[in-house]
Fold this protein.
Amino acid sequence: QVQLVESGGGLVQPGGSLRLSCAASGSIFSINAMGWYRQAPGKERELVAVITSGGRTTYADSVKGRFAISTYNAGNTVYLQMNSLKPEDAAVYYCSAVAVSRASWPENVEVWGQGTLVTVTS
């Protein structure tokens, strides 16, 4: 099993910054990609940013130039640095990992964290 634990959400004023963290643990053979998604009330979950094991990144157009995704600890931890936050960035942010675990080997599985709330308001 692979577990993801997120942290770093909170309340911030417009224009402020937050950094989200997500650590993967468990019986992991490899992590092929990690990413962040978000879901605002009444809206569907959407991609925010993804980083592959090779370091390739993809961002939603709405966050390009403001958010940065990065990894640490051989790719088992992923960060999302969020700058110049806007009220429309407010949402529950979910960490995702595409990984091969002992239970799923040799297949990839997608695992989700529990979510962390980001509130942007003055």
User: Anything to note?
Assistant: The first strand starts at residue 2 and ends at 7.
